[in-house]
Design brief:
This protein is α/β, with parallel strands linked by helices. The chain folds into two domains: 179 residues, Glycogen Phosphorylase B (Rossmann fold), CATH 3.40.50; 184 residues, Rossmann fold.
């Protein structure tokens, strides 16, 4: 069966990274797929090099009838059996374009839609009741949508955890992070990964770093993540805070990076804070790197770490509690490092892209 993945743009982000890994592993796992996107982006060349067929179909406005005809023609020509959308608007396009055809429409929800416009919320509400299947990336997320939108058709709802291609950790091109940021060997090298936006809570980490400085702990911290133009204040506020607290010589904001495995492998510990992530790819990757991970007790993070069994959970937005847990790490480094190595093995087995795709294929077979 041939699957069409409908994407908005091919820019760098958690969803796009997951799909890029899916495209790279498709032939190995027997998935017959094509990619249909509306806009190019920074990951276009990466998607192109996967060898999977890519098609750009671009609507001139949100309801371009001719776009729907072009999309329908492409789906028929490529003999698509399932149209898998990653955004509600693409699910709507697929639903309309496939009218009268025997093509199933699947929608994966990657967020909570907190910041959707009224129109987008209407599209989401409309499509949740009309897709052939809605996929959620965590049980917590499914519960949220089920309650908010009164989703009672349980056979149309499934949880499918994201998968990560860990191959990139096995083929690392080493570049010294300490040399890049002039960090001495006796200094703790800490970091976090994630774009600066409303989903995350880097400010709590900044307040935690102030506590480290107050206790005269020798550290350096790297925030790897992009500044989003439409949400620039999230990074700007963190930079301003660090400047005001005299942390600018210890805290670095290098922007997005394409060497995350290399970075993670050199950190002494990984610190993460979220407001409403639906999953936690960066957290799983840090666990796989075998370093101690500290993440707040947001329901999703508790879920993917088995209630803190495989990472240290601290109270959300509570830098004092984070500091208390981190102090235990400083006092028992060898114990934390040994446990991190055990957690790495578990993460690699639980959240591999191979597991994700095997489960996905089973789901596709169920709805055919």
């Amino acid at each position: 069966m041939r699957i069409a993945y409908l994407l908005g743009s091919l820019n760098r982000g958690g969803t796009e990274t997951l799909l890029l890994d899916t495209f790279r592993q498709a032939k190995k796992t027997g998935l017959d797929i094509a990619g249909i996107y509306r806009k190019e982006g920074s990951l276009f060349e990466d998607f192109k090099h996967t060898g999977i067929s890519l098609f750009q179909v671009y609507p001139r406005n949100w309801f371009d009838v001719f776009y729907l005809f072009r999309l329908r023609k492409l789906l028929k020509r490529e003999k698509i059996k399932i149209a898998h959308a990653q955004q509600p608007i693409d699910a709507l396009y697929a639903y309309l374009a496939c009218f009268g055809l025997k093509i199933k429409v699947v929608l994966t929800l990657h967020g909570y839609g907190y910041r959707y416009s009224k129109f987008y919320r209407l599209v989401l509400k409309f499509m949740l009741k009309r897709t052939d299947l809605n996929l959620f990336v965590s049980k917590s997320q499914q519960t949220y949508y089920s309650e908010k939108y009164v989703l009672k058709e349980t056979q149309k709802l499934k949880v499918l955890y994201n998968g990560i291609s860990f191959d990139k950790f096995r083929h690392i091109q080493y570049r010294s992070i300490r040399e890049e940021f002039s960090v001495t060997e006796d200094c703790l090298l800490l970091g976090s990964v994630g774009n600066f936006n409303a989903v995350r809570d880097q400010m709590t980490i900044c307040r935690f770093l102030k506590l480290l400085k107050k206790q005269n702990i020798n550290f350096a911290f790297v925030f790897a993540g992009a500044k989003i133009n439409a949400e620039a204040r999230y990074m700007d506020d963190c930079i301003k805070y660090c400047d005001e607290q005299g942390l600018n010589s210890k805290v670095f904001f290098p922007g997005p990076r394409n060497d995350i495995p290399n970075l993670l492998n050199q950190l002494d510990a990984f610190i993460y804070s979220t407001d409403h992530d639906t999953f936690g790819i960066a957290v799983i990757e840090a666990m796989y790197a075998g370093i101690p991970v500290f993440v707040n007790d947001w329901s999703v993070m508790a879920e993917i770490t088995e209630e803190g069994k495989h990472a240290t959970l601290y109270r959300s937005k509570d830098e004092e509690d984070l500091f208390d847990h981190f102090a235990r790490f400083l006092a028992n480094k060898e114990k934390f490092i040994q446990k991190a190595k055990e957690d790495a093995k578990w993460a690699g087995e639980e959240y591999s892209i191979e597991n994700h795709l095997n489960n996905l294929i089973a789901i596709y077979n169920e709805i055919q």
